[in-house]
Amino acid sequence: MDMVENGLRRWLPDDLMSGLSVLRDFAGIEAGGGGRSRAWLGALLPLFAGAALGYLLLPPLLAASAKEALFAILAGVMAVGALVAGFMLTMMLSSGRIERAESLTYEVVQAYARRLKWLMLSQAVTLVAAMLLTLVALVWLIGAALDWPVEGQRVLGALAAGLGLLSTIRCLLIPLQIFEIHQAALDDTVSQRLQETREKFSRGKE
Question: What's the rounded Cα separation, in Å, for the pair 57 and 51?
Answer without folding.
Answer: 10
